[in-house]
Every structure is written in C-alpha cells, then in structure tokens.
Amino acid sequence: MKKTLILGVSALALTLASPQAMAMKAKEIKIGFVTTLSGGAGVIGKDMRNSVQIALDHLGNKMGGVPVKVLFEDDHFKPEVGKQKTEKLLHKDKVDIMSGFIWSHVVLASRNSVVKAGKFLIISNAGTSKIAGRLCHKNIFSTSWQNDQVPMAMGEVLNKRGVKSLYIVAPNYAAGRDMVAGVERTFKGKILGKDLTKWPTQLDFSAELAKARASKADGVFIFYPGRATNAFMRQYAQAGLTKTPLYSVFSVDSLSLPKLQQAKLTNVLGTYSTQFWAPDLNTPVNKKFVADYRKKFGSYPSHYGAQSYDSIMLIDSAVRAAGGDLKKMDTMRAAFRKADYGSVRGKYVYGNNHFPIQDFYLRKVVADADGKWTTKIEQKVYSNHQDVYAGKCKMKKTW
Amino acid sequence: MVDPHLLFEQLFNGVQYGILLFLLAAGLTLVFGIMDLMNLAHGSLYMLGAYIAATVALATDSFLLGIAVALPATLIVGIFLEVVVLRKLYDRGHLDQVLATFGMILFFNELVRLIWGPAGIEVPLPSVLNQSLTLFSIPLPIYRILVIGVGLAVAAFLYILVVKTKVGMLIRAGASNREMVGALGIDIKKIFTLVFGLGAALAALAGAMAGPIFAATIGMGENILIQVLVVIVIGGIGSIRGAFVGALMIGVIEILGRSFLDDLFKLFLPVNAAETAAPAAASMLIYILMALVLFFRPQGLFPARSG
C-alpha cells in the first residue's frame, strides 16, 4: 500500500516535471539494417556498416536525445534470406525503422514485410525501377538513386564525347537490365552488341570480350558490381582491349580500386564512370564524412557508404522533427519528404516517388597525392535529375 | 554469317576454359572412381590453392613461387584431411560422405574468411602475362595460352603416371578390384592417401592458375564444382581420359553457347526476347548434354573398367 502510494506520487511528480517527454518519447530507437556481410560482396556491407558507425559517431549515438541502436543483418546476397532477416528484425527484435539493402532483388523480396508491419523503409542503395514506379509507398524512401539514372548520365557523356558505337556487357538480373535500359535510353550512337551474363556465378568473360573486340565498337559499357569488377577488369586487360575505352557504372569505385591497384591493373587509370557522388565532392558534410572515415578506417568510403551515412542522417532529421516520438508517423513522413538534413551530396529534394531529384557527375580514376587510386569528379552531367519511373508511381507530390 | 576469326578465338577460349575444368575434374574423378568417395570439398582445396598461391605471389612478387608453394602446401592439407577425416567415411554410404564433405566446405569458407578476410585477393601477374599475343591477326591472351600449356602438360603427366608406372598400375588395379589388391599384400590405404594427395595438388594447381583470371574469393570452388561434376558424369567416373574429353566438350559448348546463341535466336525471335532467352538457354546447354549422355551412355563416354 505504502509502496504504491510512493510510486504514484513519484509518477505524478515526474509528469509535472516534463509532461510531454514522459508521455511520448521513445526509450530507445532501434534501426534494422539489412546488407551483405558474408561472401565476396561482404566488402560492400562492411563499408556500409563503417559509414553507419561514422554517422552514429557524428550524432553521439543519439537522435533527438534518444539513444539509438543499429542492428545489422546479413542477407547472404539472397532474396529469400533478406526477407527472412527483415521479418526477424521487424517481429523478433521489434525495430522501429528498417534501412540498408544493397540489392534490387533482395529489397523487392523484403518490401512487403516492411509495408505490412507499418514501418518506414529507408533504402540505402538498391534503386529498382519497380519501387521507384508502381511499387512506391508512402513509407518508403531512398537515399541513393534509381538504377537507370546513373547509366543515363553515362549515355549523355558518351554522346558529348563523340562515341559513335558501343558494346554492352552486364549481368542478367534486375539491376543489370535496368542499367542497360538506362544507357540505351540516352545514348544516341549505335549499339553493336549486348551480352547479359549469368549472375552472380559467371566470372569468365572470355567469350563476351572476344565478341566486344570483334564488334570494333568505339567503347565498351559495363556494369559489374562487387567482386566481378576485378575479374572483368583483369580479363579486359589480358584480352588486349586496352585501346578500347571502358565506361562503367557501379563497378570501379572505392571498394574495387584498392584491389585493382594491388593487382597493378593500370589500364583502369583514366577510365570514366558516372555517379551522384565522389569522395572529393565539395560539400562541408562530405569533407567531414570522408576525412573521419579515412581517419578511422584508413581507406576511402564508397558511394554505398555515403548513402548509408545519409540514411542515418535522414532518419535523425525525422526523429528530431517528431521530438523523439516514433508514433508520430505523419510528422516523421513530412520530415522525410523535406530532406532537410546535412546530406553528403548537399541539398536535394524528393520526387513524388520518394527518390532524390539530384545532380550526377562524371568521375575519372586518378591516383591521389599519396598514390592511392580514387575517383575524381570531372564535370557535372545532370542537374536536378529525376528518374523516369516517377510517373508510374501513384503518389502525388504535396510537399 | 559467323566471322571465322571470331569462331577460332571462341574455340580457343572454350579450350582454355575446358582445360581449367580438366585440372579440377582429373583429381575429382580419380578420388571418386578409385576411392569411391564423393568429395564435395574438392572445390575448397581449389580455393585454398588459389589463396596460398596469391598470398605468396603478393609477398614475394613471384607468381611462379606462389604456385611452387601452393602445390605442396595443399597436398599436405589434402593428406591430412584424408588421414584424419575421410578415412572414416570409406565404409559409409555416399550420403554420409556428401554431408561430411559439405560440412568441410562451410568449414573452409569460414577458415578462409578468418585468415584472409571477406574481400578476396588479387594476384599480380608479371606484366608480360597481362597482355595478348596476336596470332593470325587474332589477339590471344598470353596467360590463357599458358593455362592451356600447363593443362596439356598435366594431362601428359597423368597419362604416363597411370599407364606407364607401377604406381599407376596399382591405382588402376585398386579401381577395378580393391579387395583383390589388398589380398595381394598391397597397402591400399597408402594408395588412397596418395591418390587423394594428388587430387588435392591438382585442385591447388587449378586454383593457382584460376587466381589471375578470376581473383581468389570465398566460395569460388562451389561455383565451378557443379560444372566439374557435369564433366566427370559425361566423361565416365574414374576415367582421366573421360575427364579430359568431357572438360573440353563442356568448355567449348559453354563458350560457344554464350557467343553465338543470341545471334542464332535472333533469326527466329524478336530481338528483345532473344537477348533475354539466349543467356538462359546458354547456361542450360551443358546440362542438356549431360542428360543426353546419361540417356544413351549412362556409364559415361569413357567408363573406367571397374568391378
């Protein structure tokens, strides 16, 4: 009796002290982050996890005064595992927000689980045309791009550089086909041939490279993320294609370059790729992110890392807007839509499908002052570019 | 129609790919045919060979030294595995062997991750080998010519070993009637250890040769092992000759399928459909061949005479 009374009085006293916070502020924010941590693609997941760590360091492990915890899960590069891990995070760990996802096919398999659970999904990489279009949702946001945008920018670059004919090699899966569709949409020259290879098991490209050389195309366009990049670049050099310029998307980046340098594949230097970001992108947030990342981990972050950093920062902006009350879904959604946070790419806005409308750049592989290979921005290709699937998304822009 | 230069070049690529498969298939078919042991972990020895060769090559800047170290090192690992683990499995069924060696795959993948990390290793080649040689106005990668040379040398070595030497005679005898060899006072256990060690060394050689093309990565063995199994089923289990012919067939069919099937499909399909269907059909070709061989010659093209 006495105990209850004391409890009651203290509770009342607390309510009086800070009525708002007591009623609503979450005790802890749990973010579920699905990525690939095992196998050859594990390097991507590691870079994303490192970048999330930098973001948490910058936030002091708190969002809007509430302690935050990020739970990582490994999707093994497989859609069925990704979905299973998503369900586990949502229902067993009871996370408040889902984020991460490298692969288009994995996020497509996991999307419905998050939507059904009524949680926000902040996609850190996978830019599948389906989620940008027909499968867009009020609770799904991207901090990356739609797959097609990057190869579309490359198509424009090829036109500007006077490339008349092109040979295309890409893996045969959702993102691979998006990349091919993207470059075909903007490239005005002739496409002399196109090979879609078995993904992810095929690492021998001798047949495709022989065809590319026989086609006598002005340039070769490729998309080979993860470990396939190195196998491709090496065989490209060995096949005697060094005189045919190589144009790539999502292949030559901060993760593959140290390995390519280790293998002394100097034919990579000077090759071009397009992207919304590069380690040398000149924004105050990016300078701080890249410097702190390099100090802590000794290498350049990749775009996967940059997008993951942005995912955490975007979530932070929404949590702060809701005063730490994660039940205020509408307030949080409004904050997400404003994208009013310190992004590594500078200010951008969200389209009706919750994908960024942003700038894209042409990047060249160079050696930095210490001799380390990295990508450097050459020029801006697109300003405020919106993906072409936004029209297929039924949401209307009301912000 | 088809450009003869391109056709020749793709045949070359097919032979080269087949030779790489042969290096793996030779060891696996010996172990399977002679010891009656289903060893799924053969791919793990391939991976181990690739990693050891890559590590030594990076440390010493000598690709040759990498191979020289990888072969005996993997041979020792193979002999250790045979003595400690596999010997206990000979009297059990194939299912037990599959389960145990599958467990070994997981073990080795995790071991490699612990030692070398998840990223894989690139193997620097002497710059001479990173170029191509122009033959009849066709540029052929020098490194792939080297792979073919090594594969042919191994095939010759195995032929002499199995057909012309006393050890080879015992190996053949062990394959056709194990009990009788034992009854004649030959220590069959020693022969098994030797065969398994030889298989491991061949896998390591394949791994070391594959490293500079694909890079050494975790799980590289499982990808290729499926095709190797197809090779030994087509060639006839236990037959080196079968492994050689089967590997070349698979290599050439795989590459030619990838090269020309899309053009072929475009003759009677819309371009878009052909482009999507061709890669799928190309990756099915070798399995179709296997099904045909199994239907007409269930024992394979060159069955080893076995009791």
Question: Could you describe the 3D structure shown?
Answer:
The complex is a heterodimer of chains A (399) and B (307). Chain A is globular. Chain A contains 14 helices and 14 strands. Chain A has 399 residues and is an alpha/beta fold. In chain A, strand 5, helix 6 and strand 6 form a beta-alpha-beta unit. By secondary structure, chain B is mostly helical. Chain B has one domain: Orthogonal Bundle (ABC transporter involved in vitamin B12 uptake, BtuC), CATH 1.10.3470. In chain B, strands 1-2 form a two-stranded antiparallel ribbon. In chain B, strand 1 and strand 2 form a beta hairpin. In chain B, helix 6 crosses helix 8 and helix 10 packs antiparallel against helix 11. The radius of gyration of chain B is 20 Å and the shape is globular. The model of chain B has no long low-confidence stretch (mean pLDDT 91). Classes of the chains: A alpha/beta (399), B mainly alpha (307).
Characterize the overall form of chain A. globular
Return the CATH topology of the largest domain in chain A: Rossmann fold
**Percent in strands of chain A:** 15-25%
Indicate the radius of gyration of chain A in whole angstroms: 23 Å
H and E order of chain B = HHHHEEHHHHHHH
Q: Let me know the largest β-sheet of chain A.
A: 8 strands, mixed
Distance between the termini of chain A: 54 Å
Superfamily at the CATH H level of the largest domain in chain A? Response regulator
What's the number of structural domains of chain B? 1
